[in-house]
Fold each of these.
Amino acid sequence: MDGITDAPMRAFQGAQNTFTHSVTEFIRVSNHPLPTRVFIRDVPELATRAKTTTDLPVQIQILGGDPDRMAISALNAVAAGATAIDINFGCPAPTVNRNDGGASILRCPQRVYEITKAVREALPASIPVSVKARLGWDTIEPIYENAEQIQRAGASWLTIHARTKTQGYNPPVYWKPIGEIRRDASIPIVANGDIWTVEDFYLCQEQTRCSHYMIGRSALANPNLPHQIAQTLGLQTLTPIPPVDWPKLLQEFHDHSTNFHGPNHPKSLNRLKQWLAIAARFGDFPHFANLKKISDHQDFMTTLTTLCHFQTSSNPLKLVEISHH
Ligand SMILES: Cc1cc2nc3c(=O)[nH]c(=O)nc-3n(C[C@H](O)[C@H](O)[C@H](O)COP(=O)(O)O)c2cc1C
């Protein structure tokens, strides 16, 4: 996710040992093919066989509308050390779409085919090329034709975000078409979109029968969800899953940020706030208002620890109060 799943976040997620796979933020190919150095700069994991230091495989995602420039960029990414390439046909951002990239390509299945095929043909067969797509621009039907073109072009798998571009991130999600495509597909289909709880996951699983799932925002809003889903899929046997320990998780993430940016970099604290803003908006993290204005990391962590500790220790008190009445 652009602005979120950067190298420190990928390293952090690798340490949680729940995801089997991660994808970089999209890297945009515009007027010229991207040279090797851009990938080396943006994706430090390329120096370690495209895995985080915490052993999570990292796939490079590229975005653009010109088949040749996309193909040469993908080739350069592989020369830089990439072991898998993903093509973004999902981004709904107006600046991206105006410049012929992301979800705008979905309006023309022939272009979806040509871009995917050009990237596929440019790379050695040992390098998987996958696609991330939305259902369509303003209707859901284009995904059927686009999924066929993506398979015909030789993609190794297809991840489908169950919304149209015009929906942005608004409800509803349409998981059913993902199931229909999965049923007839010759490649693995990865289901994505609005899996916020284990119940959502079961519903999505029921409607899609997919073997593979991608989750984005909910991994931050509810950090236990990846553990719960991994367990459901038989990927992990950490039972019982302990309650979310926000200070511990945020300190761990901060340590990974410090490894990348150096000590006391303002970006590191900002990223903690960004995470908690997502947890407050989409999850049940209650303390964001008390934390967002703090500008010192130590102060931030102390306040966070106090607030979280107070919250935990106040629960038994409430029970005592209730038992008095
Ligand atoms: C801030 C933000 C940035 C995103 N950036 C990307 C991106 O770079 N590449 C991509 O394929 N999807 C991107 N997405 C879409 C997510 O990967 C995902 O498809 C979407 O959030 C729905 O899944 P979720 O409900 O599990 O979050 C982004 C989403 C958000 C909210």
Amino acid sequence: MIKERLFRDFAEMARIPSPTYHEKEINAYLVERLKGLGARVEYDPEEGASLQSNAGNIYAYFPGDPVRKPILLSAHTDTVTPAGAFEAHLENGKITGDGRFVLGADDKAAIAVIFEVLRRVKEMKCSHPPIEIAFSVAEETGLEGAALMDLGRFRSGQALVLDMSGMDLIGYAAVGSLDIQLTFKGKAAHAGWAIDEGINSVMAAASFLQKIKTGTLDSETVLNIGRISGGEAVNIVPEETRLSAELRSFREEKMKKAVEELRTAAQKTEAEYPGLKIRFDVREKYKPYENRKEIPLIKALQKAGEKIGRPQKLVRCKGGSDANIFNNKGLESVVLSIGMTDVHSVREWILLDDMAKVVQLVLAFLKEWK
Ligand SMILES: [Zn+2]
């Protein structure tokens, strides 16, 4: 029965596409569903307007034993693209899309799990903590919805963010990320009669790239040059070349150091090309976090895992999630794996069985969470 309901809920959400910034329809549906499950819901569809989203974050409250510590369960309602309405396919326990669109198990599988958890605690009629729910918009573009979220509306001091591939993993730490744009401004000139009057920004960018290290910088830090563009035509010395890079690290100080190294390489490049200017634009996407492994939240999850015969493994995540925002705003959070696989592609899939196992884990956790 659990699996049937999980699949029915998931299939229903699969019929409502929700690419980032277009969560209006799915959120209206989710608000009604949460109310139907007995939660009090606060929702302002205008909340995400500053993000260009046509929806807002969903805040929901599901009553429990008032003497017990509340817990926040969180997921995001947007998906990557290509997104479209489709009939989710279930065969031999495996849920797939129709090949044209992402399945959206990232993160609708988490929402289906949370719905089933709410139904189960109601059916079991035993003591459970008050459950608060945060469904964010615009997660995929850089945790924008979570950053906008008013966490003061929750009583919980801890959160479980259900949003990771794999099974039986607890993400207790995660990288932070910086977006770095470099603009090489040289000087245009005719590539025939005035070539020596020009400053070639493409060559300057190439020289810069030879001075820096990319890929794995150290055991906790990676740098990727993801895009390069510049120049106009073969008969013009290219005036402007742009490089886009992404830096990820588990340590903020290491990110600062890596940016400094880029700046030093830029200065050296400017010295090589008199008149060249290199502009740096560094934007923080999200900060890293690292919880202690002994916090009650992790202890309770591990105990729950043991009780259901599925030991949980502590991992550090190489990607961000809403937990980055929550932790850095003082809401202690970890990420839970939910079994989604090949996410961010049209090949995405998930096992219904794994979703049911996550339901069991969260239910066991709720028993431990005092
Ligand atoms: Zn996700």
